[in-house]
Amino acid sequence: MVKDFVSNATLLIASFSMLGLIFKNKPLHFSSPLSTRIYWGLCFGILGNILMSFSIQVDSRSIADLRHLAIVIAAAFGGYVPAMISAVLIAIGRIVLSGFSETSLLPSLGSLLIGITCGGISLLHFNRALKAFLMNLCGLFIISIMFIMIIDDKEILKHVLTIHYLISLIGGFIAYHFFVFVVDSNDAHNQLKHSVIKLKETEERFRLIAEYSSDMITMHNERTEYIYISPAVKEIIHFEYPELLGKKMEYFIHPDDIERTNEMFERALHKGVAESTYRYCSKLGDYVWIESTLKSVHFQEDGSKKVIIVSRNITDRKLTEQKLQEANELLNRLSYMDGLTGIANRRYFDETLAKEWLNSFSANSPITLLMFDIDYFKKFNDTYGHLTGDFCLQSIAQAIKKIITEALGYTLCRYGGEEFAIILPASNIEEGIKLAHQIQETIGSLKIPHSSSEIADFVTLSIGLASLIPTSSSKSQELIKMADSALYLSKTKGRNSISINQ
């Protein structure tokens, strides 16, 4: 009898394995579609009838088997519907196999009662394993009542119940956990299948985008080597796919941009995203401007990271930006330039003096201002005309500009009309006097005729100098007033002279 019960349990478990394979795409859950739960209910009902076919004959009126476990598993995993369907089929099968009689009617009613009880327990809200154990106990209790009613021999009854309980509890435990394995395996299979489908769809989408995108899409390993390149590479940088595969990005990037681009790659690798603009050497040997967006992707299969880069050629835009920048710089220069003489204008003078005043204050160093104008310039214009007067201003400005080198840091400006100014930062009055004499000598060497001058036959200059060490209470306007006063003093002294105010 023990051997027969074990065979019954083995048949039950083997059937679960086969059902799992047949319905691997229709796993049994409480939330499964009604059609799926009906399929499983029918299968469990058929399984119960098969178990009855291999039942153990206890006496002339009764048989024993593990058919109730089919109902228990159906209820534990699928709920009320498969439990009742399997119970009804088992009840019908019992009558069909044994004929309609009191002996067959009682087990049939017992099967229905087990189905109702297990279906009811399945509606309770607690652990599924505990529910299955409780269902098995209830089923065994109902079967025990039937055996008590049918079997008269107490020794046989005791023997049957002992073996039935033992095999049912052990078999039920194994059957439950095996079916858990079957369900979990099917779920894992379906999830994997779904993941593979999604992956294929994603791959197809990516390839479709990459194949038809006007942007160049590339994938790189952690060493920046190319492992995928989209067809747009030929249009953007004129390379063929195999010519870049396995090579590092830095081989093609302008030397001045390599460090910045590597930093962007590392940022994308460790922080997820980055952007970079750089020059890339195309197959034609010229450098094109590339704008790239970088994003890292983590591959769980091998734990590696890849960086996907979407790049576009922005050379035309860069050239336009460069021309615009040059135009803005030119406009900026022109806004600070005197249109007639080509030297700095009054606006530049005001801004430069304010800046150098602050620098001198910070360094506690002197700043000197030299102001000069052309003697009897109005008479010059009256005598020679305004065009000649303009030429005179230009000649003087350019002659002085030659001796005001950038190395000295001096700034020559047209202050207004025929008046000019030179800012001498970090310079004392002695350096200013030396420059003033040099200017007078330079203008004298030009020998620009000035027949209307009351002091010479050639153009001469009157010069005024002032020097200060800025303090927190002083302002740059004080220096201008002092230099202007010195210039006025030179004029009152008869012109063509140098005066100092300090």
Question: What is the compact description of this entry?
Answer:
The protein has 16 helices and 12 strands. It has 502 residues and is α+β, with helices and mostly antiparallel strands.
In words, what does this structure look like?
- There is one protein chain.
- The chain is of the alpha+beta class and 502 residues long.
- The protein folds into three domains: 2-190, Orthogonal Bundle (Arp2/3 complex 21 kDa subunit ARPC3), CATH 1.10.1760; 213-318, PAS domain (Beta-Lactamase); 336-501, 2-Layer Sandwich (Alpha-Beta Plaits), CATH 3.30.70.270.
- It has helices spanning 2-22, 34-53, 67-78, 80-98, 102-122, 128-150, 154-212, 233-237, 241-244, 258-271, 315-335, 346-363, 377-384, 386-403, 429-446, 476-492; strands spanning 56-57, 63-64, 216-220, 226-229, 273-281, 287-299, 304-313, 367-374, 411-416, 419-425, 461-468, 498-501.
- The strands form three sheets. A five-stranded antiparallel sheet has the order 4-3-7-6-5, with helices on both faces.
- Strand 5 (273-281) and strand 6 (287-299) form a beta hairpin.
- Helix 1 (2-22) packs parallel to helix 7.
- The longest helix is centred in the middle third of the chain and has 59 residues, at 154-212.
- Residues 365-502 form the GGDEF domain.
- InterPro entries: Diguanylate_Cyclase, GGDEF_dom, Nucleotide_cyclase, PAC, PAS, PAS-assoc_C, PAS-like_dom_sf, PAS_fold_3.
- The chain crosses the membrane at residues 5-23, 38-56, 68-93, 105-126, 133-151, 163-183.
- This is Diguanylate cyclase.
